[in-house]
Each structure stands twice: as structure tokens, then as C-alpha cells.
Design a protein that fits this description.
14 strands; Arc Repressor Mutant, subunit A; NAD; 39% helix; Redox-sensing transcriptional repressor Rex; 259 residues; eight-stranded mixed beta sheet; single chain
Length: 259
């Protein structure tokens, strides 16, 4: 068996990502984008934290573009994305996009660059495994399409769910996974199963050739080195918020305790 590694929580890893683009600094025609299919060795690395922020910049840029904005300063974009401007400028420098002093960044060109880096030049088919309450909510979410993704297939191991129609798709049995993944050219999958079933589902996905997994199950997955896993655990996020609430209440109570 190939070398195993555990998944990483979203935004928690600082290792360089394996996808980025060699982009021109002058915004020349084509925006300095390498030809599609360029070897990965020709693309510079990006820190994982930078990759995690690029979608935030992209979302803010689309809002600006929809409002008729053509140019944006680093301060304006940073505020819209919820980061500090120095961090934003450093992130965009990896894309060799330094803007124009006194003017800012061309919104359209920056959208093109970030979409290229994130591989959003084409819509990506996604498989969703597990159609319980969470899975159904994810299947019906309308925001994936505008961001370069579409749910191409739904799977579940429960025979009573097979054949159900959810968000315009018919639920398939998990045994059909390999056939559908090959037919739909699926490389990305979402796991929304109970924790006890998630590892077996991950193994099946990997065996079918899926190389990227978004895991909503509250467990850690073991996957081969060439498979990327992002973990979303809503309970953990609430626990982190609970810590901050507890800390705030403790700090508020400190003066009384001292007196």
C-alpha cells in the first residue's frame, strides 16, 4: 500500500501547495498565464495559507466587478476580504501581481489570475457521498456553480435512499461509485457520512481514482500521499468559538475576582 498520511483541517497547514501559476507582472495580454497543461514543475509553489485566502479575494473581487468596479486598492480589497493589506499584498506578489502604484489592481485581470491559480478555468465535477440531512443541504446549495463546481453524482449505502431525487439528481448506490467516477471524470468528492463509515468511503473513493476529498465526517481519514483531504468539522468550530466566549467572560469577571 502507498504511504499514508492524515488529513489536515482547513487553513491549518503552512506547507507549500502544489498549484500556482507563473504570471506576468505587467498585466500583458493573457495576463502572463502559462499554457494549459503546463508541467507542475514550471509552476511556483504557494503557501497553503495563501491558497486558503485566494478564494476570499476572489469572492470580494467578483462583488466589486458586479458593482461596476474596474480598479481596487490593496486596502479596499483587504477590507472586503477581511485580511490586513500587508498580508494581501504579499499573497498577490506570489502571483506576480503587484498592482500599479497610486492606482491599484485591475479587477478583471486579478480575477483571471486567481481563477487560473485555483484551477477554475473549467467547471469541476464533484461526487457527494452520504445524503442525510447534511448531504442533502450540500447537494441543494446553489453557490457551487458560480464558483466553478457542480455536484455530478450523489451516493449512499442505504438502499432505501437509492433512487431518491435530490436537487435534480437521482441517488445512486455506493456500489456504482467506480463506474460513475470514471464516466463523469470526477477527481473531487465530498464525504457527508457518519464517522464510522467515512474511512471505508474514503478508501473506495481513492480506489476509484479520486484525488481530492472534502470531509465533513467528524473523524480523521488516512489516505495515500497523493490524495488531498480538507476537513470541515462544524462541532470543532463551535468549540473554538466557545473557547473565545469563555475567555471573554473570564476576562470580564477578573476585576471582580481581584477586588
Amino acid at each position: 500500500m502507498s504511504q499514508q498520511r492524515s488529513e489536515r483541517p482547513a487553513g491549518s497547514d503552512s506547507r507549500p501547495a502544489r498549484s500556482a501559476a507563473g504570471l506576468s507582472a505587467d498585466g500583458s495580454p493573457g495576463h502572463g498565464l502559462p499554457e494549459r497543461g503546463a508541467p507542475a514543475s514550471e509552476l511556483p509553489d504557494l503557501p497553503e495559507a495563501t491558497v486558503a485566502r485566494l478564494p476570499e479575494y476572489l469572492r470580494a473581487l467578483h462583488v466589486l466587478a458586479d458593482g461596476g468596479g474596474d480598479v481596487v486598492s490593496s486596502e479596499e480589497l483587504a477590507q472586503a476580504a477581511g485580511v490586513n493589506s500587508a498580508k494581501l499584498r504579499k499573497d498577490l506578489s506570489y502571483l506576480r501581481s503587484n498592482g500599479t502604484r497610486g492606482v491599484g489592481y485591475d479587477v478583471g485581470q486579478l480575477i483571471d489570475k486567481i481563477e487560473h491559480v485555483l484551477g477554475l478555468n473549467q467547471h469541476r465535477a464533484v461526487a457527494l457521498v452520504g445524503v442525510g440531512n447534511l448531504g442533502q443541504a450540500l447537494a441543494g446549495y446553489g453557490g457551487f456553480g458560480s464558483r466553478g463546481f457542480h455536484i455530478a453524482a450523489l451516493f449512499d449505502a442505504d438502499p432505501t435512499r437509492v433512487g431518491d431525487r435530490i436537487a435534480g439528481l437521482s441517488v445512486r448506490h455506493i456500489d456504482e461509485l467506480a463506474e460513475v467516477v470514471a464516466t463523469e471524470h470526477i477527481a473531487i468528492a465530498v464525504i457527508a457520512t457518519p464517522a464510522h463509515a467515512a474511512q471505508a468511503v474514503a478508501d473506495a473513493l481513492v480506489d476509484c481514482g479520486v484525488t481530492s476529498i472534502l470531509n465533513f465526517a467528524p473523524c480523521v481519514l488516512s489516505v495515500p500521499e497523493n490524495v488531498d483531504v480538507r476537513k470541515v468539522d462544524l462541532a470543532i468550530e463551535l468549540q473554538i468559538l466557545s473557547f473565545h466566549e469563555h475567555r471573554k467572560s473570564t476576562l470580564t469577571a477578573l476585576p471582580e475576582a481581584i477586588s
